[in-house]
Amino acid sequence: MTALSAEARLSGIDACRVVAFVFIVALHAKSPFLPPRYGLPLEILPRFAVPFFFLVSGYFLKVDTLKFSAFVGKFVQRLLAIYIVWMLVYLVAWRLFHVDFGFATIVGLVVGGGPGYHLWFLPSLGVSVITVFVIARFLGDRALVAICLLLYGIGLYYVALSAPLGPAVHWNFRNGPFFGALFVALGFLLRKHGWQPEMRGALTLTALGLLLSGVERAALVLADLATPSQAIDYTLGTVPFGVGVFAIALNLSPRGRMVGNLAALGRYTLGLYCIHVLHLWWVQWLLPATTLGNVLIATAVTVVASVATILLLSRVTALRRFIR
């Protein structure tokens, strides 16, 4: 198979950004009260999406061409501005629609996104990217892999096993560098070493990751370490699952109409991700997630409403930096 050009790879990545966003909406739209035959697929299938976005950030990370101070200053300034703006949006929205509002709500919003629970991704991305930049720049690739594997392993242990096997740690290990740094590092290393898998290999890796994720979930449930509907970010299978889907993105040709249309929308996935929970609130108020049909409809309506809103906001020049 002939390696795709850089432009073609970029189109595939942008197209898959949109696909990943749709799966994230489905994950957030699901209900823990769905029967396991519906809830489990909705819990497991979208788990490639957030790792995919971390991988993309690593893939475009330039370590050797930027000074550390310049990179951190520019990156933190941009990401912090985006986080603060969207945090304030959810702060205002929550205040308008909820009476229960106080200091604890504000603290929860600042630390983890609060009602904008999905905003955890932004500070985690910032910490993960800076961690990878520092290690790759000053310690090299081997140290990068070793440290990021260690961080992921710590999170894996405490998320899946801490309650029955060790002392409880009151920290969500998807935050900070524990979850995201490994995927950012993998994306960076894949680009640096010119890894270009064939589609067959990408599909195989994706299938293996998905299968491993399912087996791990079943093992945790059988061992009474998790419930069938419990949200679990960390599994070993998440790594090959996320990398496999990213490899598929690298193989997508931009010649197809669907890939081209999705790629054009891909530049707005930051805004789509940030705004979708606002729409999900009112959609699920009208259509509670009590059945699989309601969840799928809510997902579709939320996606369409988010796209329409962001495309309208993109017409305002001053707002583009917060949605692209």
The biggest beta sheet is recorded as: none
Distance between the termini: 33 Å
- The strand count comes to 0
Question: How many domains would you count in the coordinates?
Answer: 1
Overall spatial form: globular
Global Rg = 19 Å
Residue windows where pLDDT falls under 50 for at least 5 positions: 163-167
Q: Encode the helix/strand succession as letters.
A: HHHHHHHHHHHHH
Q: What share of the residues does DSSP label as strand, in percent?
A: under 5%
Residue-averaged pLDDT, rounded?
A: 85
Structural class: mainly alpha
**How many H/I helices?**
13
What is shown here, in short?
Helix 3 (49-59) crosses helix 8. This protein has helices at residues 6-29, 36-44, 49-59, 68-97, 103-112, 121-138, 141-165, 177-192, 199-222, 238-251, 257-266, 269-286, 292-313.
What does this structure look like?
This protein is an all-alpha fold. The protein has one domain. The chain contains 13 helices and no strands. Helix 9 packs antiparallel against helix 10. It is globular, with a radius of gyration of 19 Å. About 0% of the residues have low confidence.
Fill in the keyword field for this structure.
324 residues, mainly alpha, globular
List the helices and strands and how they pair.
Elements: H1 6-29, H2 36-44, H3 49-59, H4 68-97, H5 103-112, H6 121-138, H7 141-165, H8 177-192, H9 199-222, H10 238-251, H11 257-266, H12 269-286, H13 292-313
